[in-house]
Structures are given as structure tokens and as C-alpha cells.
Design goal:
The complex is a heterodimer of chains A (596) and B (354). Chain A is built from 16 helices and two strands. Chain A has a two-stranded antiparallel sheet with strand order 1-2. Chain A starts with 20 loop residues before the first helix and ends in a 66-residue tail after the last helix. In chain B, a hairpin with a 2-residue loop joins β1 and β2. The chains are: A mainly alpha (596), B alpha+beta (354).
Chain lengths: 596, 354
């Protein structure tokens, strides 16, 4: 069955050897434990990332006003409690880095790929538990280095999360481009290695370790999403690694890959013949697929949760898989839409406009299919379901403005303004975050054997949903008014004085949204210990993970791994008493499997 | 004090929350909540879904009604008209799709909220439907792509002729300079290597061995004659910058080691834009805000803010360091006559280094 040896024997085995505290909770090779480790590390980083955004939102709403909290948290970088412009840029940079990579890549994909791939395809564990463990600990190490970079003398990296050289390459250009930048690059290099190990493991596991009967066309859409995400990661992350390495060379060893003709601080530098545009190409060759590395797992999670809670098959399974594949393919040939006005040849702009707008087609198909899945369903509005519906909503709202930004012509005037900030926060930030929350609420019983409190979940969702629109909707207007992003304050331009209301409004919504996340954290931690004990299949779901015992065990199932006899979406099938038929239940006599 | 206050509020919030959950738990003890949505939850949240739909619509309408006037005024460049038209077509389309899809999404979430004993419709596929919603986006996007590409090519094709004015935009941390070609109409060669020549008076690094450079004019304020095409050649001496002129729908990055280009024809003078009714309203509003703020400042013993008068702006729109937020240059669009008068008053490079 597998080239990878003994651990996939169909008979139960292997959970008799002694576990010490260290092998069980720290250097665990069990995918369920690793998934929890990813989740908790991701949430911890998320707290830092979100807290940073609240700090710089305070500065934007009440520019250059003293805040006691700045003095406490920022110390010498906020003399008399007024935030320093360099620190503002550092906060923006690290907020972006942490949210994109540490929370929404590792925290989301790391958690749920690890938890669900073996459980949903019917495998005892990942193909390589050891690699999986190494992958997590490299992620942990990179998180530690990123956090350490916040405490160095001149401050953390501050060149924006895209760290375009020469700003990021020259310590003379800004304080954040010194040691902070070096640590950023080291942290990211380790992060990429971690992500590659994880992705390879996911791919191999999905290809080799599916249980009997689990053909590719019977895979839950979650697995399709994780599988394709892993492939995109393997294709594109190494390119970012090369960019980071070349940047390290330019910074520390005097090469000129990205630098040329520079005069700074009264000095002509020796760099000749490099080009920052080359860096932009390398960065966005990962940077754009990264959007889908973040988004596809969230969409996969949503597909599963919407089908389960609508008590209906997901509409158009084949089209959903095809869209995932189409998005994955297109995502690797659209990176240039971040560079329409970078000085690259305008003809290339035309090409990238064409490929970019094509992505709207599979995205539209996905959105319509979700909506149709809801139609005539029997919607169980659990917190996970609310977040999934919320995801579809923000995915549409944010995705639509992509039609403007992906059009090279229209991009000219909204490029790098708040319009972009609104767009990507809705379509990728909020959507993926909703995916993460939905996943946590839905699979919490699987992870911790207990239920989260639903009323706190409802409260969490509604406050977050209102605030998410309250924060990001007005930003479209600010962007269309011509205000660039990454401005410490807009008071230097009287022309923007009428935007002051917006900034206050946005910040108030952001603070409330931040507070609502505390409710989630409380619910999460409290339920972990005191939540109601979960049943084996609380949501009456069809997928295999709900056939495994609540109490975690090494190898996932006692006895044989269940075989699979049907696709995962037999909900409310006519002629059956129950409104769900799990995948391991054989077809009844005369029952036809849906040709999907 | 401030911190203590915030801290105690947070602690109190946490305690309140803890108590609330306790109440939830105690009140549910008898029924032993499964923490799975029941009829009551479905009903309540289904209705909230509908309310949320109304919230999104209301937010959209309110924003346009109350804040529509912050948007940029009519374009001040010739290609800007095409730009705005494409923008509004795209927007109309987006609004239509947004309105319809959000309505369906939230309405279905409300209408089909679960009820015990009800059974969902087993409906897994419909090739015709899926074909329809693949083809419709394909056709719409094909139209948008073609329209967009046509406009893009139009804007980005830069051809010099006798009439065009060539201006170099020179970016550095954290200010802008502009260089005009002078009498001969040709910009002299330049490189950052020459910046220290002439005791630092060579502000944009003009190559003194190139005779074309001596009549060049380097200024800190950009003046443009109305109705004449301007080709901008962008340079940067240190890090990436981006020359953003929102009123002209124009933007291009300035890249060290390379010269980038963007061209447009200004069609409204600064004075003309000041007379634009939208602009008059906007400036009035801004001045009201500034007046209110001045009152506060005066009360604190500070200096009042100057009243604001509209001017076109060149902003830096690529993160470039600490003062990125204040890297700006004034743009003046004026009649050909006024422009000629202004340019002859400026010192040439040869005069400046004397």
C-alpha cells in the first residue's frame, strides 16, 4: 500500500510503547499533538500581531498624541508616550509578517493540515512523523527569532512586510534595516524550511496513505485544498528563500543583486548593476501564491463546514475541485500585478492583467457554489457555520475589488493606497481568519475532546463580523481619496484633513474587534479544561475523523482503519432515515453512488 | 495612571466575562446543553443574518451619502477621463454583483435556518447552472480585460515629439526635485556619482562633461503648462519611492539605478480646479475642520492652523523610511504664458553652480 513502511499496517499497533511527558507533549511525532502545537503557537503570534495593529491604529486616529500604553509597551521608542515614525513602520511591518506567515500560513494550514489529513484520509499518522516534528520545531524557532527581533537595539525590521531593497538592504536608510532586518531574514529562512518540510509531508501522505476506498474523487474538499496548497508552497516558497539569501548577500557580503547607483547619507555606495525590480519579481513569485496558500485551506475548511451544517451535499464537487486546481495554477502566473507601476515593461503589465482577471472565474464559481449549497438546506447555525458564511461574504466583498486592482489601468491610481489595504484585508486577512475560527470551533471537539461554548461563539462572531466591515469598508473611501498606505499620519497634508472622522471610526471598530477576540481566547482556554465533554460525532458529520475515538490515541483508530465506501457529502440523501451517511458505511443494496 | 486604568478595565472585563459564562453554565445545567445549535439558536442567528445584510447595505449607502465628497474630484489630466470612466464601469459592475450575491447569501442563511425534523434538499449538481455561472463571468471579464488593456496601452505608450515637455522627477529621502531640460530641450546625463561635485551644489548629479546639462533647471516645485503633454523621467538616489499624483491619475515608481517613465497631459489649471464645485465643497469642509481644531490649539496656547487652499500634490507612495509620510511636492498647473514666465525666472544649472 505504501512505500513508506510499517506504520501504515492496517492492524492496530504501535501505541503500547511508553510515552514520557517530553515525547508526548513537546517532541511529539503524533500529528494530533503537532497540530495543537501549531495552533497554540499560531494563536500566540496572532495576539502579538493583532495587538500591534491596535497600537498603530491608535496613532492613526489620534496622531502624535501621547498614550500611556505606548510608554509601557514601546519604551524609548515612544518618548513621552508619542509613537516614533520608525516604530510605526516597524509595527506595520511586523504585523504584516506575523499575520501572513505565522498566523495564517503556519497557524491555519499547519494546524488543520496536520490534524485533518491523516484523520480524514484514514491514515495512522503523517508519512513521516519525524519530519513533521522537525517542521513544527523549525516554525517554533523562527517564531522565537521573530519575537526576539522586536527587542534589538535599533528596533525590528521596518521596510514593510515585502521588505523591498534598497530600503531593507541598507542600514543607513532606516534604523530597522540593521540587526532587526537580519533577524527577520534568518527567521523567514527557517520558516520557509519548516513550511517546505510540512508541505512535502502533506503531499506524500495524501498520495500514499489513503485508506482503502478513499479515491481522489472521494476526498473531502478540505483535503483537496490542503493538498493543492502544499503543492503551491513547494513550488513558490523556495523562490522567496532565494530572494532572502540574495538579499543577505547584498547586505552582508557586498554583492549587487538588487542594488545599483546609490547615494545615501552623503556617500556614494559601490553597488553597480543590480535591480530592485528583480527582487520584486522574486518576492511576488512567492508573495502572490502566498495569498492562496493562506486562502485555499480556509476555503477547504469552509466547504466542509457548510456542507455539514447545511445538511446538504456541497454543490458541484467536481467544479469545486476544478476551481481549486485552476486557482492554484493561475496563482503562479499572476505575480506581476503587484508591479504594474514598478517600472517593468508595460507589455508585461498587459499579460499580468489578463491572467489576473482570469482568477475571478474560478473564484466566482466557488462563491456561487457555496450560495447554492445553502439553498434549501437545513442550516444548523453553529458558530463554525456563522464564520463560514461570514467567510463567503468577505471573500466576495474583498474579491470584487480585486477586479479593480488587477486591472493595470485602474491600479495606477489606487496602487499602494488604503484601497489595497481594504481589499487584501477583506479577501485574504479576514476571510482566512474566519476560516481559522470556523475550523477551531468545528474541530475543537476533535482536538481537545470538549465542546466550546456556543453562546460565546455567537457573541464572538457577531461582534467580529460587524467590526470587520466597520474597519475595512471605510478604507475603500480613504484609498479612493488618494491616501497612501504606510503613512505615520496624514496630518502633513491638509488635503486629507477631512479623513480624520474615518480614522477615528476605524480605530474604534478595531479596538472593539480586538476586545471580541479576548472572548474567543477565554472560550478557547476555558473550554479546553472545563468545556462539555464531546460526543464522538457532535456535528453529525460524514468524514472519517469523527469515527475515531474522542480520547486521542497513537494510530488514531483502535483495530482496523475504516474503509471508505462513498463520497463525503451524502447528507439528506433521499430514502434514508438519518440526514447523514458517514463515508465508512457501505452502500445499501440497490443504492447508487452519486456520479460526481 | 492611564495604564493602570486600562489594565483594571481589562481585568474587570475578564471577570465579567467569566461570570457571564458561569451564569450560562449554571442556567443550562438542567438541560445539559450539548453546545450544538438548537432550534432557538438557528432561529435567532438566522434572523441576525438578515439584519446583517441590512447592516452591510446601510453601511454602503451611508458611506456614499456621508463620505462621497472625500473621493478624488474629476481627473485633471486628459487620460484621466478614460481612467475614471473605466473605474465607474467596473464599480457599477462590482456593486451589482455585490448587492445580488450578498443578498442571496444572507437571505438563504435566514430563509433556510435549521429546524429539527426538517430535511434538506439533496441537490449535488447541475451542469447547466454551473455552465451559466462560468460563462457569464468569462464574458464580462473578457469585456473588462479588453477595455482595460486598450486604455492601458493608450496611457503607457509614450512618444516624444516637438511639443512634449520632458521633466525629470528626482526622489531622495525625503523630498522631491524636478529638473527641466532648458533651452536645448535635452536633459543632460546624470548619475549619483556626481552628486558631490561643485561642493554639493549638483543637486541631482548632472554630469558636467555633458554639455546638454548646463542649461537644465532644477527646482523644488513642479510647474506644468496646461494642455501640453509632459513626459516624466523618474529617478531615485537612494531607496524606492513612488511618484504619485492622484489628481492626474498618475503614478510610477522611482527606482535607483534605472529611469522610469510616465506621461500625461494636464487639462485643468490649479485655478480651474479650485473653482470646481466639488473642490469648493471639499475645501470648505476641510477649513471648517481646521477652524475647529485651531480653536482647541489656541485654547492650549498653540498656534492656529493656516486656512487651506487647494494645490495639486505629488506624494511619495512607496515606503521609504521615517519621513515617508511627509515626502511631498506642490504641483502648479498654469497657462503656457505663466509657465514660460516662471521657467525663465529660474536659475539654470550653470548659473547655480557659479
Amino acid at each position: 500500500m505504501s512505500i513508506l513502511g510499517a506504520q501504515v499496517n492496517e492492524e492496530d499497533q504501535g501505541h503500547h510503547h511508553k510515552e514520557t511527558f517530553v515525547t508526548k507533549y513537546i517532541f511529539s511525532q503524533d500529528h494530533k499533538m503537532i497540530s495543537k502545537q501549531y495552533l497554540i503557537t499560531g494563536l500566540f503570534m496572532g495576539i502579538i500581531g493583532i495587538a500591534m495593529s491596535l497600537l498603530f491604529r491608535l496613532q492613526l486616529a489620534w496622531p502624535e498624541q501621547p498614550f500611556g500604553i505606548f510608554e509601557v509597551l514601546l519604551g524609548k521608542w515612544a518618548p513621552d508616550g508619542v509613537m516614533d515614525p520608525n516604530v510605526y513602520l516597524a509595527l506595520v511591518t511586523i504585523h504584516g509578517t506575523i499575520m501572513v506567515f505565522f498566523v495564517l500560513t503556519a497557524g491555519l494550514s499547519g494546524t488543520f493540515s496536520n490534524l485533518l489529513i491523516p484523520l480524514q484520509i484514514g491514515a495512522r499518522d503523517m508519512a513521516s512523523g519525524l519530519l513533521n516534528m522537525i517542521s513544527y520545531w523549525m516554525f517554533f524557532l523562527s517564531s522565537v527569532i521573530m519575537v526576539i527581533s522586536l527587542f534589538v537595539e535599533a528596533g525590528p525590521a521596518a521596510a514593510g512586510w515585502t521588505i523591498y531593497p534598497p530600503l531593507s538592504a541598507l542600514p543607513q536608510a532606516q534604523p530597522g534595516s540593521g540587526t532587526g532586518m537580519t533577524l527577520w531574514l534568518v527567521s523567514m529562512a527557517i520558516f520557509i524550511a519548516s513550511s517546505l518540510l510540512g508541505s512535502l509531508n502533506y503531499i506524500v501522505t495524501v498520495i500514499n496513505l489513503r485508506t482503502k476506498g478513499m479515491s481522489m474523487t472521494r476526498l473531502p474538499l478540505t483535503i483537496w485544498a490542503f493538498f493543492v496548497t502544499a503543492i503551491i508552497g513547494v513550488v513558490s516558497f523556495p523562490v522567496l528563500l532565494s530572494a532572502a539569501l540574495l538579499l543577505i548577500m547584498d547586505r552582508s557580503f557586498g554583492t549587487s543583486f538588487f542594488l545599483s547607483d546609490i547615494f545615501i547619507q552623503g556617500e556614494v555606495l559601490h553597488y553597480q548593476g543590480g535591480s530592485p525590480v528583480l527582487y520584486e519579481h522574486l518576492f511576488w513569485f512567492l508573495g502572490h501564491p502566498e495569498v492562496y496558500i493562506v486562502l485555499l485551506p480556509a476555503l477547504g475548511i469552509t466547504s466542509e463546514i457548510i456542507a455539514t451544517n447545511a445538511r446538504k451535499p456541497i454543490f458541484g464537487y467536481r467544479a469545486m475541485v476544478a476551481s481549486i486546481l485552476a486557482i492554484a495554477f493561475l496563482s503562479t502566473i499572476v505575480w506581476g500585478h503587484h508591479m504594474f507601476i514598478s517600472g517593468m515593461n508595460p507589455f508585461l503589465g498587459s499579460v499580468f492583467t489578463f491572467t489576473t482577471l482570469l482568477i475571478a472565474i474560478p473564484s466566482a464559481v466557488k462563491a456561487f457554489n457555496y450560495i447554492t449549497t445553502l439553498w434549501k438546506g437545513n442550516l444548523q447555525l453553529n458558530p463554525a457555520m456563522l464564520f463560514s458564511i461570514g467567510l463567503v461574504s468577505t471573500f466576495i466583498t474583498g474579491g470584487l475589488t480585486g477586479i479593480i486592482l488587477g486591472d493595470s489601468t485602474l491600479d495606477i491610481n489606487v496602487h499602494d493606497t488604503y484601497f489595497v489595504v481594504a481589499h487584501f484585508h477583506l479577501v485574504m486577512g479576514i476571510s482566512a481568519l474566519y476560516g481559522l475560527f470556523a475550523g477551531v470551533y468545528h474541530w475543537f471537539p476533535k482536538m481537545f475532546g470538549r465542546m466550546m461554548n456556543k453562546n460565546l461563539g455567537y457573541f464572538h462572531f457577531w461582534v467580529t463580523a460587524v467590526c470587520a466591515y466597520g474597519v475595512f469598508f471605510p478604507m475603500h473611501f480613504i484609498g479612493m481619496a488618494g491616501l497612501p498606505r504606510r503613512y505615520y499620519t496624514n496630518t502633513a497634508f491638509p488635503y486629507f484633513d477631512d479623513l480624520v472622522d474615518f480614522n477615528v471610526l476605524i480605530t474604534v471598530f478595531a479596538l472593539v474587534a480586538g476586545a471580541a477576540q479576548l472572548v474567543f481566547l477565554y472560550n478557547f482556554i476555558h473550554s479546553m479544561f472545563y468545556g462539555k465533554e464531546a460526543e464522538m460525532n457532535p456535528w453529525k458529520s460524514n468524514t472519517l475523523e469523527w469515527t475515531a475515538p474522542v480520547e486521542h490515541m497513537h494510530g488514531n483508530w483502535p483495530g482496523k482503519i475504516p474503509y471508505v465506501h462513498r463520497w463525503p457529502y451524502d447528507y439528506s440523501k433521499p430514502g434514508f432515515e438519518e440526514d447523514f451517511i458517514p463515508q465508512h458505511i457501505p452502500l445499501e443494496k440497490g443504492e447508487e453512488e452519486l456520479q460526481h | 495612571m492611564n495604564v493602570l486604568l486600562i489594565f483594571s478595565v481589562l481585568v474587570l472585563l475578564a471577570i465579567a466575562l467569566w461570570q457571564i459564562t458561569k451564569i450560562f453554565e449554571l442556567s443550562q445545567e438542567k438541560k445539559v446543553s450539548t453546545q450544538v445549535a438548537n432550534n432557538k439558536d438557528n432561529n435567532l442567528n438566522g434572523k441576525l443574518m438578515l439584519a446583517f445584510l441590512i447592516f452591510i447595505y446601510a453601511l454602503t449607502l451611508y458611506s456614499f451619502w456621508a463620505y462621497g465628497d472625500v473621493l478624488l474630484p474629476e481627473a485633471a489630466s486628459e487620460h484621466g477621463g478614460d481612467y475614471d470612466q473605466l473605474m465607474w464601469i467596473s464599480f457599477a459592475l462590482i456593486f451589482f454583483v455585490q448587492t445580488v450575491t450578498q443578498a442571496l447569501l444572507y437571505y438563504f442563511s435566514y430563509k433556510y435556518r435549521g429546524e429539527k425534523g426538517k430535511k434538506a434538499l439533496f441537490y449535488a449538481d447541475n451542469d447547466v447552472l454551473e455552465m451559466i455561472w462560468t460563462i457569464i463571468p468569462v464574458i464580462t471579464l473578457a469585456g473588462l480585460i479588453l477595455y482595460g488593456l486598450y486604455t492601458w496601452t493608450d496611457i503607457m505608450t509614450v512618444e516624444e515629439n516637438d511639443e512634449t515637455l520632458v521633466v525629470e522627477l528626482y526622489a531622495q529621502q525625503f523630498n522631491w526635485k524636478a529638473r527641466y531640460a532648458g533651452e536645448d530641450g535635452v536633459l543632460g546625463d546624470a548619475n549619483v556619482r556626481f552628486l558631490q561635485d561643485f561642493e554639493g551644489k549638483n543637486l541631482v548629479g548632472i554630469d558636467a562633461t555633458d554639455p546638454n546639462g548646463f542649461d537644465d533647471v532644477v527646482v523644488q516645485e513642479l510647474h506644468l503648462p496646461v494642455g501640453r503633454e509632459v513626459i516624466f523621467k523618474m529617478r531615485s538616489q537612494d531607496v524606492l519611492h513612488s511618484a504619485y499624483m492622484p489628481h492626474f491619475r498618475a503614478q510610477m515608481n522611482c527606482v535607483p539605478g534605472m529611469i522610469t517613465e510616465f506621461a500625461f497631459t494636464p487639462k485643468t489649471t490649479t485655478e480651474g480646479m479650485r473653482q470646481n464645485p466639488d473642490m469648493i465643497t471639499k475645501v470648505k469642509k476641510i477649513n471648517k475642520i481646521r477652524f475647529e481644531k485651531s480653536k482647541e490649539l489656541l485654547a492650549d496656547g498653540d498656534v492656529a492652523l493656516d486656512p487651506y487652499e487647494f494645490d495639486y500634490l505629488l506624494l511619495c507612495n512607496k515606503i521609504c523610511g521615517a519621513s515617508h509620510y511627509n515626502m511631498q511636492m506642490k504641483i502648479v498647473v498654469e497657462s503656457e504664458k505663466d509657465y514660460e514666465k516662471w521657467i525663465t525666472e529660474q536659475q539654470t544649472f550653470a548659473e547655480f553652480i557659479q
